[in-house]
Amino acid sequence: MSRLLSSRYAALMFVALVVIVPGLMLNSSFYLRVGALIFIFGFAALGLNLLMGYAGQVSLGHAGFIGIGAYATAVLPTHFGWNIFAAMAAGVAGAGLIAYIVGGPILRLKGHYLAVATLALGILISMVISNEVKYTGGPDGMAVPRLEVFGFRLRTAQHWYWISGGVLFLGIVAAQNLIESPTGRALRALHDSEVAAGTLGIDAARYKLIAFVVSAVYAAISGVCFALLNGHITPDSASFLRSVELVTMVVIGGMGSILGALVGAALLGLLEQLLAQFHEVETLILGLVMMAVMIFMRDGIVPTLQRLLFSRRAS
Amino acid sequence: MTAPVLEADGVGISFGGVRAVDNVSFRAYPGRVLSIIGPNGAGKTTLFNLVSGVYRSDSGRIRVNGVDATGARPARLAQLGLSRTFQNLQIFGRMTALENVMVGRHLRERHNVVLHLLGVAGGEHATREASEALLDRIGLLSHAHEEASSLSYGVLKRLEIARALATEPKVLLLDEPAAGCNAVETAEIDELLIALAKSGLAIVLVEHDMKLVMSLSDSVLVLDQGRSLVEGPPNDVARDPRVIAAYLGVAAEGDLAGGRMPGGTHAAT
Asked: Which of A72, A140, A259, B50 has CA atoms 20 to 30 A from the CA of B232?
């Protein structure tokens, strides 16, 4: 089992199974929608994990990039007559560009200052979305045009379950590629010892910026999928709470673990649904679960399980 | 003599009111070993941090390979051909031994994030091969795929040297490479450094093991209280009354040359 979790291809097999088996078994569009949401936010958390778990930087404003992806998909075709595919690409590229421009000065900050700066960035984006009523519909949100491929309208939860599952799978492949590449090694080196990485020629500022841009692109792609799945978006998708949720997914699942982001997204997504009927105590129980995970599995769920399984095998 | 690859001219730094390093100058030449010794707290490691860009010197100049590198960051110095190891290990603990060395190949690799995401970056094979060759050279190939944090102190000391060598430096700064190593490991490091110097690398060494320093060095620089005390061939330095006074407070000839160093916690006695 530990080999299964640590080996690259086994992790991919695991994800494929997690996508395919429920996809074939579930036939209620409600559950398929929950699954799709888990994949979509798992995808964003995966990108944020590259920043937090590998580059060692925290962002409290990542939902802002989800918002950019989501609103570009809705606003550009509706108000400017863009082709929807061009709009999707523009949303993703725009998020990457904004991350690149603001990332330079922001990533010079350390610790709390960095957290506050990214927090401000996220809030800024969500304020723009809420206030530009003319284009975004303000707090009421706006409709997203349906995606059409070869005359086939992609609108049911089932369609988006498979699409977002596929996107998540590709996102995991790309993240694995990156981590095993020279860029990934540079990031991991920076995380372990910035001073040693520097003496080997690694430019810390440059690599933190790369991780920030990549994670923003992941978030924006997740935003595009979210908008297309929902068919309607509100500023909530870019809210501060969403950002905190993403950070929580990464931390609970396990920083620096590819599967961790997915497990964190699944846990949060499922708990939210399970607790929906106990509406009054929902947040309370969610908070208790998070505290329990943080107390008993400080490194997050996946790394802790890996260690437990590994040490049992060794003994 | 050939041109020096590393020149430090009157460098210094203050921490608060303490002048930790004051107006120190030295030159390192290709194929030669310069050792920096001195009592604990003399400023040896601080001098290393100044020269390698970890701290910024507030006086003087530093040139690497003839290029002015005063105030340059470590990454820039690495590009110019300066690499170093650390007294307190700075290993990438969550990476394997091989990956640690592969990070050292950073400057020799091409960097395109999009290609890395797609998994089609070339050159990975060359990096791996060069890194394995280095691990083999320092005798750690059998540990290649073990996580660095699980390796012993002596192994990690050598791994840091391999990692620094992976950058293909012109000048290598070694901060106590033999500290905490047993006699066999120390002998191995001794042998490795001789071979490296022979291949034309300039080596600057901070070390408490006087036997190692005396046998290895072409030149010895003695620091005391942040200032340069004496520089010269090892035997001259060991006999210098000022050096003996700095270490012992009183003249006690013979102790230094005999390989004893009361000031050094890791002295090989």
From this structure: B50
